[in-house]
Amino acid sequence: MASEIVALVDYGAGNLRSVENALRAAGAGAIAVTADPAVVCAADRVVLPGVGAFASCMGALSAIDGMIAAMDEAVHQRGVPFLGICVGMQLLADAGHEYGRHPGLGWIGGDVRLMRPADPKLKIPHMGWNDVRATGSHPLLLPGEAYYLHSYAFDVADPADVLATTEHGMPVTAAVGRGNVIGVQFHPEKSQAYGLAFLARFLAWRP
Q1: 143 near 132, Cβ under 8 Å?
Q2: Which of 74, 121, 191, 193 is the most exposed place for a label (fewest CB within 10 A)?
Q3: What element of type H or E holds 203?
Q4: Which architecture characterizes domain 5-204 according to CATH?
C-alpha cells in the first residue's frame, strides 16, 4: 500500500520545517510541503500551520489562487482529515479581531479575540507549557501538557465544537473540531513527547 500524502500548506505563515520534522518523527511517510492547490486537493491529509497575525495569515492564504477552494474540496467534499495548528486553527473561525475585524474560513463558528486574563499579572502572550483538558472523548486528544504561544484565543460559538481547553487567567480554547476537522491552539511540533504522540494519532485517524 502506498504511503499517504500529507499536504503541509505553505502560504508563508508557518514554521514549516519544524512541523514537517515533527510529522516525520511521528511516522508520516510522504509529506508534501506545498503551495500548489492541486497537490492539496489530492492529498490524503491536510495540515495548515500558522504563526503571526490573523489578518496577514488569512491574506496570505487567500492570495494563493485556488488554495482555499482546494482545501474545501479535500476536507468537505472528499472528507480527508484536516489539522490546523495555532493560527492555522484560528483561521477556521468566522472572523479574527486583531487590528480590526477580518473574515476567516468560517469552518467552525466563532471569533478570535484578544485574551484578557482576570489576573493582570498574567502576561500576554500566553507562552510556555500548559495543560490540555479534553472536554469529551475525542480520539486525538488525551490529557497532558503542551506548548502554547499566542495572544488571541478562539471564542467558539457552539460548545460542542470545543474539544479541549486550558486556563490562563481565563478559560482558553485549546482544541476545536467537527467531523474530520481538528484544530489545536498549542504547537505539537514544540510539545515534545505529547506533541509527537498527538501527531501520530492524527496520522492514524480515520474520522
Answers
A1: yes
A2: 121
A3: helix 192-204
A4: 3-Layer(aba) Sandwich (3.40)
pLDDT band at residue 15, thresholds of 50, 70 and 90? confident
Catalytic residues: 86, 187, 189
b/e per residue, 20-50, with b = 16+ CB within 10 A? bebbeebebeebbbbebbebbbbbbbbbbbb
| Paired sense of beta strands 162-167 and 126-134, if any | antiparallel
Where in the chain are the domains? 5-204
Angstrom distance (rounded) from CA 25 to CA 27: 5
User: Using N-to-C axis directions, what is the helix angle for 192-204 and 16-25, rounded to 10°?
Assistant: 70
Confidence band, pLDDT 50/70/90 cuts, at residue 39: very high
- The pLDDT score that the predictor gives to residue 121 is 86
- pLDDT at 108 > cutoff 50: yes
Task: Taking residues 131-143, report their average pLDDT.
Answer: 94
Nearest one of 9, 16, 3, 79 to 46, comparing CA atoms:
9
Nearest to 141 by CA among 132, 154, 150: 132
Share above pLDDT 90 across residues of the chain, in percent, rounded to a whole number: 92
The 10 Å CB-count burial string (b at 16+, else e) for 155-186 is: ebeeeebbbbbbebbeebbbbbbbebbbbbbb
Average pLDDT over residues 23-40: 97
Whether the Cβ atoms of residue 51 and residue 13 lie closer than 8 Å to each other: yes
